[in-house]
Structure formats: structure tokens, C-alpha cells
Design a protein that fits this description.
Elements (H helix, E strand, L loop, with lengths): L2 H14 L5 H13 L5 H4 L7 H15 L4 H5 L1 E4 L2 E4 L9 H11 L7 E5 L5 H8 L5 E6 L2 H13 L6 E5 L10 E6 L14 H4 L15 H7 L2 H4 E10 L5 H10 L2 E8 L5 E8 L7
Parallel strand pairs: 3-4, 3-6, 4-5, 6-7
Antiparallel strand pairs: 1-2, 7-9, 8-9
Helix pairs in contact: 1-2, 1-4, 2-4
């Protein structure tokens, strides 16, 4: 079948299945199946596609029509200009999370020791290590499958010597004190998860989404370990939900952080809470 006709067929299948951005996903899956370049659809729609590759494309379409996320089908997701291997054991890295990495990058931190709690694919820690000099880091996650993915990504990015990934309940197995602590913990209220898009609700790991009853559970648990993990001047960065800014800011102040700020994403929603450990707990 011709490349252009195959694309049209794919677009219609995904539209009928109610897939968001059906046109884009149909094109990306076709490029993935055939190895074609982006401009092929517009420059050479008459190009013939081998039957084997056409069948492969149709198999991918069937998965996407079941609302399996595109990244789980291709096995890859771009984040901070880098390509990360992903599967059903990890959350798919999102553009919103790049705000957290960008906040860390705003301050000099070469030579720092970094802790990434709830590391998932390792995208936050590995991005920070990639865009810095002489840093080392530990990433922790309770999921053995996630740790395997993070270790694979460390190898793909030639960062194995700089990153250690540990299967751990939060920071339980992390020793020493750190200069920078980052975390994108589960923060969605349990009773809200059923309202999420099928791609997230039905396919991304529930454990990485569920922030318990009020969505704040893991911030509270991480901050209980502040004195063990932080020295004076340690910088902490959390990804947060759109309505959690003031709550997480208050928790950080109570745990001894000063200069706590809430950073919005490009949509104007709360996305990151950050502060510096001062050692003086504040009752708010």
C-alpha cells in the first residue's frame, strides 16, 4: 500500500478509537514501523510500503487504539533533549517534569552529590548528570522493574559510572548527605485516578501515581528524613500537583527549609516546590 494511504487508514482507525492527537500518533507510528523520515508523508506519499512493514504498522495501530500509550509501543520517550527507554514499569517522562530539571539547572551545581527519590526511568537524575560536570547521584525506587529501566538508561547515556540506582522504599537505602535532592513522587489523590485518561489510568503504573487520600503522603514521608539526608544548604526540589503549592511549601518550611518558592509551569499552574535546608523548623 502507498505510504500516504496507509497513513490515512491509520489516522481514521485512531480517530474512531477516540485517541487524542490521532493524526500525530498515526504519523509517528508509521515512521517508527517503516523507518521513514518525517517529511516522507508530504514529499513522497506515493512511496510503496512493504507488506511486512504495513502489517507491523497495523499491529501498532491496534495497540494504540486500545489506548496503550505511544511511548510504550515504541519503547522510547524524549525528555530534556535526550531519548529514554520506557516500558510499563515506569511513568512516561513528561514535558511538565522538565520544569523541575530546569529549576535545578538555574543554579550552579557542578561537583554535587544528587539524590533522586522515586526515580522511575531515571530521567530526572540522568538529565541533571548529563548537563553538569563531575556530579554523581543515587536514584531510588520501590519498583524493581523501574530500577532495571533506570540502569538501562544510565548505560545508554554513558552515565553508569556517575549514577547508582537502588531498589528502596523512598530514601531508606540512601546513605550520606546530599547537596541536591529531587523527587517526582506519586501525588494524585487515590479517588481521582479513575478520572484520568485511559492511557494513564489503565496503563501507567498505579504505584507511581497514587499519592494516597490527600496526595501529600509521600512529601510528608520524604521530609521526615530531612535531617538524615540534608546538610545546611542542601537544595530540595519537588514536582507537585497544580493545587498543591501552598501545602507542600508549608510542609517544607516545617521541615526546616527556607527560601521556599513555588514555580509555575508554562500553563501557569503550580509545578515545582523548591527550598534550601536551613535547619530551623518553622511552625506554620
Amino acid at each position: 500500500m502507498e505510504y500516504g494511504r496507509l497513513y490515512q487508514k491509520g489516522k481514521e482507525i485512531l480517530e474512531e478509537a477516540g485517541v487524542p492527537e490521532a493524526k500525530l500518533d498515526a504519523r509517528l507510528l508509521l515512521e517508527y514501523a517503516t523507518g521513514a523520515e518525517r517529511n516522507t508523508l508530504y514529499a513522497h506519499p506515493e512511496r510503496m510500503v512493504e507488506a511486512e512493514k504495513a502489517a507491523e504498522y497495523e499491529a501498532y495501530l491496534a495497540k494504540r487504539a486500545e489506548r496503550i500509550p505511544l511511548a510504550y509501543i515504541t519503547g522510547w520517550q524524549s525528555f530534556m533533549g535526550l531519548d529514554f527507554s520506557v516500558n510499563e514499569n515506569v511513568l512516561i517522562p513528561r514535558q511538565d517534569t522538565e520544569i523541575l530539571v530546569e529549576e535545578v539547572l538555574k543554579e550552579p551545581f557542578d561537583g554535587s552529590r544528587i539524590l533522586d527519590i522515586c526515580t522511575g526511568s531515571g530521567c530526572i537524575l540522568l538529565s541533571l548528570l548529563h548537563y553538569s560536570n563531575d556530579c554523581t547521584g543515587i536514584g531510588t525506587d520501590l519498583s524493581k522493574g523501574a530500577i532495571e529501566v533506570a540502569r538501562k538508561n544510565a548505560g545508554l547515556l554513558s552515565l553508569k559510572e556517575h549514577a547508582l540506582f537502588l531498589e528502596s522504599d523512598l530514601a531508606e537505602r540512601a546513605e550520606d548527605k546530599f547537596d541536591i535532592i529531587v523527587s517526582n513522587p506519586p501525588y494524585i489523590k487515590t479517588n481521582v485516578i479513575n478520572e484520568l485518561m485511559p492511557e494513564v489510568r489503565d496503563h501507567e503504573p498505579f504505584m507511581a501515581l497514587d499519592g494516597k487520600d490527600n496526595g501529600l503522603y509521600f512529601y510528608e514521608e520524604i521530609l521526615k528524613q530531612t535531617e538524615r539526608l540534608c546538610r545546611i544548604g542542601t537544595r530540595m526540589y519537588f514536582e507537585i500537583g497544580y493545587d498543591q503549592g501552598e501545602s507542600v511549601k508549608s510542609l517544607m518550611q516545617q521541615a526546616g527549609f527556607s527560601q521556599v518558592r513555588v514555580v509555575q509551569d508554562y500553563g501557569g499552574l503550580d509545578r515545582v516546590a523548591a527550598g534550601i535546608f536551613a535547619g530551623e523548623k518553622k511552625h506554620v
